């Protein structure tokens, strides 16, 4: 646990945001209109509850916040740094995002990589990394739940959950919206949704997204201008609601995604030796590569949610299917050509993909509706996944395939769970839950062309585990509540495919014990809202991924333990009736504790960790990769009421401190602190029915390395450049 003295110091440090409260108080007398924040309802405990009453550190994003962040055609990585303790990154571009909560995540990019952060879309887990990149459109909200959520959600949630809920059909009226934006590099984003009542019992909601960006990066090696960095993306969702009575309803959901364009562009030797600075002649719009670069993906899915209200209890059945018809990504991993830029020891061009992935899930849940102090929910859960993954190497001169390795994995799991809440008094509620999980994975190599596999060609792993949580919430008054929570979680064993020199590797199951306490408050007659939480966790047997080093390999290892602690705070409110601000921040300290753990060092970088007699690098005491100590986010919106509408200006800023790209620490592979801001100004009229706006993302044009490849040269990839655009949105 955190020592109280340290906890108090951090609480005092974060209380610097509270002058906003003073400003709010001072404006009370002068304001003629007193706007209030809307009540935020979340489903962090699988029930709809006021966010203030939930004993979990949770953030909700919805409405204008999401529209602003997504207006320029951004993919799901837009969430990085937008809420406390959340980072999102990818070495695959718009596909295969990797999530980190409180510094706890996984850098693994292999086909069947598992993550400790679970992404759940419409109550269906998106287990494979490819599924986690489904676009965000026509959603009611995004919830970020921090800390273990293994009792009620299951499926690898020891770090937390990112939960998306689509806007649902209703029987009330025809309604919807449409939005179109055009930005730099002919980046376009068109989004629309329509809710259509079909009868007194049936309603339909159709949603669609279309995104495009022109190629705008020149390949100076092939002399092709505007040949890279473009994309085409479209996604659809159709939902049907059947509600024949007040006691039963059925919701049917069918969705798909198709994307193609450039894969991540790796750039050879863009990092200055001995520093983490970009080289002086760096230019985002130019690259020299002799490899092919492409990416395409097609996914589809469907789910059915049935609800029966039987008076004293509610029954739920959630059946889900998610599939990857095809995924393929190919890129120049060394980032250059035999002539450079800079020294490139050898040429590496790889491709990889996933085909025929099928995921089936089924959950049955019973929820009580007692008017008394005791309420409960219980259920069973089933998960089954199977698919084929492969990786290829190519000759960069002929572009012909030189080797091929294909593997197949089956994963089957089931769980039983239950949760109970009891109102000890009108002010004090205790909650507890338990979940028992059995997880089985069968993995095998099915094809190896020009690859001599070391070791076994198949591996079977299984694990049984019980997790639990216990929390208490106390209402200090009608506006302020405090909570404390202890929770455990687990991630099932993971398996990584073999390579030319490395056998199939297995990381055993990891477990976490987390302690958390916090306070949530509505302030100044609900003109403001604030929350503050502190936490401490320990992960035993943590799964870590060793990528690169001195060769192009990926293998799994376990660390004896890793630890984390920190705090998170959020405040939002009206300074005046027309001026609204938000401020959030987090501090995360993580540390690997395993004196016997060593990894291979990079080929050309400057290592700052101890190097053993065997030439390997000790990572004991290092922070977890991609774990930023500090994350801050701030927004401000000012509104000028006019005769027929409203003129507004909105700005948003995010900051994350430096991160390690790999398990070891090196000067070149430490990502600098990153600050990015956006500005949006516009006019809405007819009661907000229509809106036109101009926007800019990454307003300072901050450009820096956000990831790297370490086994060859000082290869890196960078963040998105500045973008200007305009948007029109209408509602009906």
TrEMBL record:
<dbReference type="InterPro" id="IPR010916">
    <property type="entry name" value="TonB_box_CS"/>
</dbReference>
<dbReference type="InterPro" id="IPR000531">
    <property type="entry name" value="Beta-barrel_TonB"/>
</dbReference>
<keyword id="KW-0798">TonB box</keyword>
<dbReference type="Pfam" id="PF00593">
    <property type="entry name" value="TonB_dep_Rec_b-barrel"/>
</dbReference>
<keyword id="KW-0408">Iron</keyword>
<keyword id="KW-0998">Cell outer membrane</keyword>
<protein>
    <submittedName>
        <fullName>TonB-dependent receptor</fullName>
    </submittedName>
</protein>
<keyword id="KW-0472">Membrane</keyword>
<keyword id="KW-0406">Ion transport</keyword>
<keyword id="KW-0812">Transmembrane</keyword>
<feature type="domain" description="TonB-dependent receptor-like beta-barrel">
    <location>
        <begin position="269"/>
        <end position="699"/>
    </location>
</feature>
<dbReference type="InterPro" id="IPR012910">
    <property type="entry name" value="Plug_dom"/>
</dbReference>
<comment type="similarity">
    <text>Belongs to the TonB-dependent receptor family.</text>
</comment>
<keyword id="KW-0675">Receptor</keyword>
<dbReference type="InterPro" id="IPR036942">
    <property type="entry name" value="Beta-barrel_TonB_sf"/>
</dbReference>
<feature type="short sequence motif" description="TonB box">
    <location>
        <begin position="39"/>
        <end position="45"/>
    </location>
</feature>
<feature type="short sequence motif" description="TonB C-terminal box">
    <location>
        <begin position="715"/>
        <end position="732"/>
    </location>
</feature>
<dbReference type="Pfam" id="PF07715">
    <property type="entry name" value="Plug"/>
</dbReference>
<dbReference type="InterPro" id="IPR010917">
    <property type="entry name" value="TonB_rcpt_CS"/>
</dbReference>
<keyword id="KW-0813">Transport</keyword>
<keyword id="KW-0732">Signal</keyword>
<feature type="signal peptide">
    <location>
        <begin position="1"/>
        <end position="25"/>
    </location>
</feature>
<dbReference type="InterPro" id="IPR039426">
    <property type="entry name" value="TonB-dep_rcpt-like"/>
</dbReference>
<feature type="domain" description="TonB-dependent receptor plug">
    <location>
        <begin position="51"/>
        <end position="161"/>
    </location>
</feature>
<keyword id="KW-0410">Iron transport</keyword>
<keyword id="KW-1134">Transmembrane beta strand</keyword>
